[in-house]
Amino acid sequence: MSVKDHAGDYYIPDPSPWPIIGMVSLLLTLIGAALALNGVAIGQFAVIVGLLLFFYLLYGWFRDVIQENLSDRYNKQVDTSFRLGMFWFIASEVFFFLSFFGALFYIRNIALPWLGGDGYLGATQEILYTGFEPAWPSSGPGELGGEFQPMGPWGIPAINTLLLLSSGVTITWAHWGLKLDNQKHLVWGLIATIALGLLFVGFQAYEYGHAYSELNLTLESGAYGSTFYMLTGFHGFHVTMGAVMLMAILGRSMKSHFSSHKHFAFEAVAWYWHFVDVVWLGLFIFVYWL
Amino acid sequence: MSTTTLTHDEAHDHGAPKGWRRWLFSTNHKDIGTLYLLFALIMLFVGGASAMLIRMELFQPGIQLLDPDLYNNLVTNHALIMIFGAVMPAAAGLANWMIPMMIGAPDMALPRMNNLSFWILPAAATMLLLSFVVPFFPGGGTQINTGWTIYPPLSVQVGMSMDFLIFAIHLLGISSVLASINIIVTLLNMRAPGMKMLKMPMFCWTWLVTAFLLILVVPVLAGGVTMLLFDRHFGTSFFDAAGGGDPVLFQHLFWFFGHPEVYILLLPSIGVLSHVIPAFSRKPLFGYNSMVGAMIAVATIGMVVWAHHQYTIGMSLGAVTYFMIGTILISIPVGLMIFNFIATMWRGAMTFETPMLFAVGIVLMFTFGGLSGVMLAVVPADMQYHDSMFVVAHFHYVLMPGAVFGLFAGVFYWLPKWTGHMYDEKLGKLFFWTNVIGFNITFFPQHFLGLAGMPRRIVDYNVMFTEFNVISSVGAMVFGLSHLLLLYIVIKTIRGGKKAESRAWEGAKGLEWELDSPPAFHTWTVAPQIK
Ligand code: HEM
Ligand SMILES: [Cu+2]
User: Fold this and answer.
1) What is the rounded CA–CA span in Å between residue B274 and residue B291?
2) Alpha-carbon gap, residue A145 to A1, rounded angstroms
3) What is the pTM of this model?
4) Which residues of A touch B189 (CB under 8 A)?
5) Helices (H) and strands (E) in chain B, counts
6) Which one of A15, A95, A107 has the shortest CB-CB distance to B216?
7) Is the pLDDT at B10 greater than 50, yes or no?
8) What Cα–Cα distance (Å) separates residue B201 from each residue in A256, B33, B336?
9) Taking a C-beta distance cutoff of 8 angstroms, is the pair B107, B29 a contact?
């Protein structure tokens, strides 16, 4: 085993200011958020400054990475590191969503039957909520938020399912174009994907408006309202992020940053997009349909 | 930017960058490891200070120093700071320092992200500190009197300090997930050619499993506290029975994270032991493969037994029985690890330097904590023990030896490698004995207190519990003060001492001991060949 101290192949970046900037921006944003939530006005400014700093950080950090990549500093092993990293990042996101799906499952199958007097400890029902008949959708024995109508699956949600599924197809089509080194094919595939994604977000926003103004379905509508908005809201947020990532990729495709054999960034975004897609299928089935 | 990246290759060869930039902007696994360890040391003292206050208050029945909410806030902070601020960062520090050197890699796989996962920690610590400070200001709301488990509905009613705490937990979560991704990627992708997975040093294996656990359970905690935040501010009713939710749901989410978390705290130390015990027994680790298998079993079963923390909530008989059997099953692989350690020592040429003293202490005392765990796992018994000081005694017996002593063992074992100096063996042994004796005086009596019915997380207690509490508090002072000795030893070793050889311990095996002590700023820039 010989050790010679000269630079190996694996790229170790130079000292970088971005992590520290990340820390400052997160700290500002969250202190601001905690204050703002409790009505301390200055908090909002801290949030805005923090978020601006955060976007600057994302821009700068990725700019560095792209530059390093373009100057061919990343070998195969670095590429594998990025791939594995992205994969496990998505895995952690899956578990984040799982906590909300878990909450939905628990409320529907355990909490509500308990409140209805099920199980060997029916005391809650007897003492607090006599006569409560659990049925889903429910805003609980207290009927919090007033009477509401649930969101059915076959209107906008079905359209949105089609939109997202076809965006999954268009991004694969774009990937195909990339593999053929056909830039036009790639760019149009991405544009179609972004358009479908934005359309999805638009419909989602419209649906929320509809729910608030006509169905009286709000965040306050008990367990149904809570799980509905939490799950669809976080998903919508992820679609938006995904769309922003797609736009970045589109910009880079137009600058011909990718080639048929080297395009990890494209694949990372595609994985993310498929992940968001699959989560939506879960939402469609468990939140809207069943 | 491009100009700096172009000079990269020269910067590489010229060792460490100078000045404050070296630490703030670091992309070097050794420096980041040092930062992690220093942060953990500071937090150890902050968390320790809150523990000293708690034990001073409990020295006598009645309310002496702290009003009840402040007391409970200290209990909350003590737990969170020790778990998230001291133990996990220290384990991550060891990982950063050792993993690349052990597997023959030039650095962690994603060096910039590595620095990000460290620097989020001070931000989280700031948020935690703010959650403690804010109630002292006008309009700052009430103190966090919930304990580290932050169960609703109480945690929904606490003032704005709870929001600081929730965000602190988010930050801690981001930091751990990023660090875990980095460790997984490093271990999967950066091993020197020829180092098969089943040839990896045991410490690497333990961290691989730990990192998987973190990636799977930390996001669930993040989701749980996010729901809490929404219940507090946006009118949702996840944890409100009137709206069809259930406070118990939060307990499930919390313990789905919380139980695997105890293995997250334990496993890195098991990894350290798997190096220390062979080195000072001068024998290879007994049963390497079975150790890996046992660990994977512990982690897997550990994911599905969380509700043993909630026996008293009124689950169905079937659920309770399942969680009981699952919990007790875990003792089998845990026991196997312990027997492997004993078999490694068996007929070895043992010597008892400080790391080995800690290792032997762990084998004895951790086993003891495991046994009280089995008592707690038995449902009808736990109906009595739950939320009593017995639980406090149990988890300190598993966590202090199982996690903290393991980290101490690692620090003493590798200090010569990091600093290039041998620590003062006499002082090391003195530290071990004061520490271990102090620990046992503090926590052993708490078993009796719990069995006799003293509840945990209450500022006052019945006069009949006085004697054992006095003993416990006196022990706590010894225990607490002994850590000043640790601080002294570490500082002394950094500043000088007998020169350490590359292989600082004659029985030590592994790639890290092929490198100089202290190692060059960049090591294994050319990967070694493993036969
Ligand atoms: C054979 C192994 C173990 C068994 C059977 C076991 C069982 C239990 C049970 C049933 C409880 C809940 C007691 C109650 O609240 O009524 C508990 C609490 C606890 N255990 Fe263990 N345990 C084991 C090992 C460990 C290990 C290895 C650790 C950490 C390294 C650990 C850390 C804890 C902690 C921190 C708590 C208390 C959490 C709290 O309520 O704040 N345990 N254990
Ligand atoms: Cu547990």
Assistant:
1) 9
2) 71
3) 0.94
4) 77, 80-81, 84
5) 19, 0
6) A95
7) no
8) 44, 18, 18
9) yes
Task: Locate the ligand 1 atom nearest the alpha carbon of residue B258 and give its number.
Answer: 38
Total domain count, chain A: 2
Pocket test for ligand 1, best of B394, B451, B456 (most atoms within 8 A of CB): B394
**B 116-155 near A (Cβ less than 8 A):** 116, 118-120, 122-123, 126-127, 130, 141
Domain end (from A39, A73, A107): A73
> Are residue A229 and residue A119 in the same domain, yes or no?
yes
CA distances from B19 to B16, B113, B151, B491 (A): 9, 21, 45, 20
Indicate the SS3 state at residue A139: coil
Note whether B11 contacts A14, CB cutoff 8 Å: yes
Q: Is the peptide bond before B518 cis (omega within 30 degrees of 0)?
A: yes
Atom of ligand 1 nearest to the CA of B79: 41
Q: Are residues A163 and A54 in the same domain?
A: no
Give residue B470's pLDDT: 97
Q: Looking at the structure, do residues A90 and A208 belong to the same domain, yes or no?
A: yes
pLDDT classification of A121: cutoffs 50, 70, 90 = low
Q: Residue A151's domain is classified under what CATH number?
A: 1.20.120.80
The pLDDT assigned to A129 comes to 87
- Report chain B's mean pLDDT, rounded to a whole number: 94
Asked if A91's CB is within 8 angstroms of B216's CB, the reply is yes
Confidence of residue B86 (pLDDT cuts 50, 70, 90): very high
Q: How far apart are the C-alpha atoms of B25 and A16, rounded to whole Å?
A: 5
Q: Are residues A3 and A128 in the same domain?
A: no
- With a 6 A CB cut-off, is B254 part of the ligand 1 pocket? no
pLDDT over threshold 70, residue B3: no
The pLDDT > 70 percentage for chain B reads: 97
Looking at the structure, tell me whether residues A60 and A137 fall in a common domain.
Answer: no
Environment class of A94 (CB within 10 Å of its CB; exposed 0-12, middle 13-18, buried 19+): middle
Residue A8: the pLDDT is: 61
Closest by Cα among B242, B154, B257, B180 to A99 = B257
Residues of B with Cβ-Cβ distance to A73 under 8 angstroms: 5, 8
* Half-sphere exposure at residue B240, Cβ-oriented, CA atoms within 13 angstroms: 31
The boundaries of the domain holding residue A151 are 75-289
A63 and A80 share a domain? no
User: Any idea what the Cα angle at residue A176 is, between residues A172 and A180, rounded to 5°?
Assistant: 165
> Mind listing the pLDDT tens digit for each residue in A250-274?
999 999 999 888 899 999 999 999 9
Of A17, A47, A73, the one marking the end of a domain is A73
Domain residues of chain B, as ranges? 25-200
The nearest alpha carbon in chain A to B187 belongs to A81
- Please report the pLDDT score of residue A5 as a whole number: 35
Q: Mean pLDDT across the stretch B335-348?
A: 96
What's the gap in Å between the CA of B505 and the closest CA on chain A? 20
CB distance B219 to A99 below 8 Å: yes
Are residues A32 and A140 part of one domain? no
Q: What is the pLDDT of residues B396-455, one digit of tens each?
A: 999 999 999 999 999 999 999 999 999 999 999 999 999 999 999 999 999 999 999 999
Chain B residues with CB-CB distance to A96 below 8 A: 219-220, 222-223
